Amino acid sequence: MILDRKKRIGIFVILPFILAVQNICSAESSPVYTIVDLGTLGGEMSIAYGINEQGAIAGKSKTADGDLMSFYWDSISGFVEIGLGKALGINDSGEVVGNYHKHTDDAFIWDAENGLLFLNKGEFLFATATAIANSGKTVGYARKFNDVAGTKAILWDPAAGTLSEIGTLGGPSYAYGINNAGEIVGSSGNPSRAFIWNSAEGMKDLGTLDEADWQYYAMDINDSGQVAGYIKKDDGAYRAFIWDQETGMQMLSGDGDGLAYGINRYGHVVGAKNTIIGFEGTAYLWRNGQRIDLNETISSEAGWKLREARDISDSGQICGNGLINGEIHAFMLSPILAVQPDIKANGSDTPVTVSKSEVVSITLGLDPSSNAGLNADWWVAVHTPFGYPEDWYSYVYSTGWMTGINLCIRAPLFELHEFEAFNANLPTGKYIFYFAINFPDGKAVAPWWGIDTVEVNVE
Asked: Which residues pair with 438 in a beta bridge?
């Protein structure tokens, strides 16, 4: 009986997905975002540099008195002043790092519980912290008084309570990004070369494109080891790049200037056309081979001119800076994920009741809206009236049906029209069929981009 039941359910989805995956839409529509104006600390300017998975942002803002103040911001607390200077990085625990500027430059770390603390500068007079991993490991750079050529890329390890230099490719070195594996990226040398560093292999040059005397800057690294950065050419123009271990360095798409500042776990990169403190330029997103002008992803009635995109979270939220009402303000963009999966039983969205001798027809449809081409996890499952471990079946492309909740396929979103995925009779009981889409992380948990269910009762 068990084998017979699995055979019946196994008809579900095989042919539709073979056909549909072969015809995935290659053209991607632009995403759509809502925008939040962070405002300022009372002055006419705020700049956002980093965003975490909770949507908290680190940056700097002018106060009503004209002071330049580092800040932490979230949607509940609003602005929290940290101290003079600028906050450049933030991790998922809400720890913020940056540069405290008064008489000298001090690297700082801040969180809501412990407040402002200064990182050990060792023998250096000036220090700046640029990024922090979830472990608390922090990177940046430091130098001695009046010794620009002696600037060193620095790693602070909270577990050891130490500061260490991570090396050089010749000349000064600067660390700008760190991932949760402890890999660090930055620039070093003259002319500047982009580097990646790890504790086992030390510092490695990421290589060059075309002219050897161009300047290369690696700005961020994700947990897969992909690096985003930019090149300054001889003529003063900038070009954004992405690098990974397999393909090496590649220019990001789009004509004209481009600077890449941040990258998330899916290889989505944010940056800008060359800007002058935010008053000129264009905020960009590079996603799935396309460069997207972020000004075209928000309502034209919002009144914004988005100038820089500085960081992007794994959930797709973006922080940056733009011009609104004549002032430069920090913003947060949140994607509107209008993905609409549809599953029907015998042509109905509502519960249906059939006899054991009647055929059950299950059809699938998907409207990806503006998210066509965006990589996603697809889940197709049925909750049966049978006991564990046969209470759930999931289709795994292209293996077939398996007990439990398992990923069907990870693939770009595309428009799917009324595919008949099941056509057979079923044993007595209640069945709930599911068709769901979510972030490509292999987890069948909310938040869902879209989910639909249909109930079938067999008497």
From this structure: 377, 448
Beta-bridge partner residues of 320: 309, 331
Q: Is 430 strand, coil or helix?
A: strand
Whole-angstrom distance, CA of residue 35 vs CA of residue 213: 40
User: Is residue 139 within 8 Å of residue 153, measured between CB atoms?
Assistant: yes
Q: Which of 262, 286, 284 is nearest to 274 (CA)?
A: 284
Cis peptide leading into 191, omega within 30 of 0?
yes
| Helices and strands in the chain: count of H runs, count of E runs | 2, 37
Report residue 43 CA to chain centroid gap: 30
| Distance in angstroms (rounded) separating the CA atoms of residues 235 and 6 | 66
Q: CB count, 10 Å around CB of 125?
A: 14
H-type helices in 332-437, by residue range? none
Whole-angstrom CA distances from 162 to 80, 139, 155, 157 are 28, 12, 8, 6
CB 405 within 8 A of CB 444: yes
Q: What is the DSSP secondary structure assignment for residue 213, as one 8-state letter?
A: T
Tell me the sheet residues that pair with 375.
Answer: 412
Strand partners, 61: 46, 69
Q: Give the residue ranges of the chain where pLDDT is below 70.
A: 1-30, 103, 148, 211-212, 275-279, 446-447
DSSP class of 28: -
The H or E element containing residue 19 is helix 14-21
The H or E element spanning position 2 is: helix 2-10
Q: 49-99, pLDDT tens digit by residue?
A: 999 999 999 999 999 999 999 999 999 999 999 999 999 999 999 999 999
Dist CA 172 CA 205 (whole Å): 14
Q: Rounded CA gap, 117 and 107, in Å?
A: 9
Which residues are CB-contacts of 12 (< 8 A; sequence separation ≥ 6)? Answer: 362, 380, 382, 395, 401, 421, 422
CA–CA distances in Å: residue 297 to residues 264, 399, 448 = 19, 38, 21
Q: Can you tell me which residue has the tokens 């002055």?
A: 43
Which residues have C-beta within 8 Å of that of residue 159, sequence separation ≥ 6? 135, 136
SS3 456: strand
Letter for the amino acid at 122? G
pTM for the model stands at 0.76
Rounded Cα–Cα distance for residues 14 and 400 (Å): 7
Strand 138-143, strand 375-383: pairing:
unpaired
CA end-to-end span of the chain: 17
